[in-house]
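Quick one, T. Sequence first:
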Amino acid sequence: MHPDEDLLEQLTADHRSVLVHFSEPNGLPSADPQRKEPADLVTDQLVRHTRAEEEHLCPLARDRLADGEAVVARELADHHAGDEGTGLRPSPPSAPERSPGRPPAAT
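Structure tokens:
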């Protein structure tokens, strides 16, 4: 299988997984502590997924689509719009991993 197909399959699987986990807390009261675990899981999945799209899929789209720059600009704008005020913006790849809402670990 071509590496690009592997990437698309993985990103598609990520989308499905996020949708499944996103629906888990449905029906629970907003203050229910059981909502925290699935919410944290979805947050982590979305951060990793967004980073993978931005690091791997966006460069491919820029290079291979006739209007790749425009497509990537729209997608990145959508990503950033969805992140506003949530603290979900992933750290740059070279930065240490951290949980949303927590400061980076001391080195």
